[in-house]
Amino acid sequence: MPVAARSQTVFVDTNLLVVLLVGGVDADQVERFKRTRAYSRDDYALLAEFVGGFQRMLATPNVLSETSNLLGQLSEPLRRRALVALGTLTGVCAEVYHPSTELVLDPYFPVLGQSDTSIIHAVNADVTVVTDDLQLYLRLSALGIDVINFNHLRSGSWT
Questions:
Q1: Distance between CA 46 and CA 59 in Å, rounded?
Q2: In this structure, which CATH number among 3.20.20.80, 3.40.640.10, 3.40.50.1010, 2.60.120.260 belongs to the domain 3-155?
């Protein structure tokens, strides 16, 4: 995908990270799990291909924790497999931490919440963020961060 030429590092927002992990262990479950029902097996494949175009992945503890909590809502044995996949992914991600006391002072915290605010604090011009969250997308765009709205990828309107 063309974006990989601009950036070598990707940050995948929580909802899409859940899609990536659920789809990675069982693509048929993407359309069945309550947290990923809005996505299809094809969405998972598109996301996996897109993310695969990057050399590195960046994460924050906030996003990884939120992802873990959402994956914990899966039924066994998919729950265990998805959490193991998250553990593996966490082992290869670069992780950026900012204290919660710093994040809650950000003026966008009341709008975006802690996980999305942690993303804003973690990324820079060398990172591409992929999200389906419109508020996060708009804020990152305003800051000049390379951000892709996954809905644009889904509709084919992004090139």
A1: 20
A2: 3.40.50.1010
Of the candidates 72, 113, 68, the residue with the CA atom closest to the CA atom of residue 90: 68
- Taking a C-beta distance cutoff of 8 angstroms, is the pair 132, 150 a contact? yes
Which residues, 6+ apart, have CB-to-CB distance to 47 below 8 Å?
12, 16, 19, 20, 23, 130, 150, 153
The two structure tokens encoding residue 107: 């003026």
In tens, the pLDDT along 95-138 reads 999 999 999 999 999 999 999 999 999 999 899 999 999 999 99
pTM higher than 0.90: yes
Q: What is the rounded distance in angstroms from the CA atom of residue 111 to the CA atom of residue 90?
A: 27
